[in-house]
Write a structure and sequence with these properties.
Blueprint (H helix, E strand, L loop, with lengths): L1 E5 L9 H15 L3 E7 L9 E7 L7 H11 L3 E6 L9 H13 L3 E5 L7 H13 L2 E4 L4 H6 L6 E4 L13 H11 L5 E6 L8 H10 L3 E6 L7 H12 L6 E3 L5 H9 L3 E4 L10 H7 L5 E3 L2
Parallel strand pairs: 1-2, 1-4, 2-3, 4-5, 5-6, 6-7, 8-9, 8-11, 9-10, 11-12
Helix pairs in contact: 2-3, 3-4
């Protein structure tokens, strides 16, 4: 059976949904399925046993023909579309893509929806188009099912919970202590934060808390880039609070390093503004390390 995934990002791009798709594709290959990926130009093609077609420069109508031609070459038995993606932006092309696949490629379409509850009204309207044309829908939270059934009563909707691509750290106690000293050779408690830095994560509150608690440092396992407006605001905030010397920013790390860094912290704090849910892979990554996790409900 030939399975083709359409996904906005794929390793080595920085995207949780891209990592999710990669792990799923590898598992399917292990089960002897033939797997191909249609994704963005920035993605790596150096993946064994998976045919990565990084052919999409932008996810707009100018690239619709390129996707259809690629699908014709791949001849999939089923196309699985991963939704959403930062790479899609607000382009309607991805939402009408299932219609064209059904008409031209003539194969079933599965759409996996990962963040439905945080879509804007316009986002839900755009997604309704692809939902209507999908033969089967996969959701990562059970609460999405009644919402989506109102839009597509004919297609089967299946709940499949996600797991984190960040597996349990293999460091022993001695190695944890050694890494801890390399990160911060002081007697301070080490609080870790892991995840992309965006407006839904409550990072400002975390900075204010660090300001108020003595003897604690924040291991910020993420990126803060001056070129990103929200990141720039966060940088200005911790400078204003005068806590620069109490924040250790790692930048982007690989999966193994993330697991090890979380493991060597005393606790992980992820104050989601909308509360933690089963689809929050950063929470699952911290949970996998068997350390205390503080989050919001």
């Amino acid at each position: 059976m030939n399975i083709c995934f359409v996904v906005g990002a794929f390793p080595n791009m920085k995207c949780g949904i891209g990592d999710y798709t990669f792990n799923l594709a590898e598992a399917l290959v292990d089960m002897k399925y033939n797997v191909s990926i249609i994704t963005s130009l920035q993605a790596s093609t150096d993946v064994s046993n998976i045919d990565v077609c990084n052919v999409v420069s932008e996810w707009n109508f100018r690239n619709l023909k390129k996707i259809i031609l690629t699908l014709k070459e791949l001849k999939p038995d089923v196309v699985c579309i991963q939704y959403p993606s930062n790479e899609y932006k607000k382009n309607l092309m991805v939402n009408v893509l299932p219609f064209f696949i059904k008409k031209i490629i003539k194969c079933p379409i599965i759409e996996t929806i990962q963040e439905y509850s945080v879509f804007t009204i316009l986002g839900k309207i755009r997604n309704a188009i692809s939902i209507y044309n999908a033969n089967r829908i996969i959701v990562v939270e059970e609460e999405y099912i009644p919402m989506i059934k109102r839009l597509n009563k004919k297609s089967q909707i299946t709940y499949i919970p996600i797991t984190s691509s960040i597996k349990k750290s293999k460091l022993n106690n001695k190695e944890v202590e050694e890494l801890r000293k390399r990160i911060d050779n002081s007697s301070d408690k080490l609080i870790s934060y892991f995840g992309f830095a965006n407006q839904t994560k409550g990072i400002e509150e975390l900075f204010y808390a660090i300001k108020e608690i003595s003897g604690v440092k924040l291991l910020f396992i993420s990126e803060l880039q001056e070129s990103v407006e929200y990141h720039k605001n966060l940088i200005e905030l911790y400078k204003k609070l005068e806590i620069e010397d109490r924040i250790i920013i790692t930048g982007f790390l690989g999966e193994k390093e993330v697991a090890d860094y979380i493991k060597c912290s005393d606790t992980c704090v992820i104050p989601f503004k909308n509360g933690v849910s089963k689809r929050n892979s950063s929470f699952l990554a911290a949970y996998n390390q068997n350390i205390p996790v503080v989050t919001t409900t």
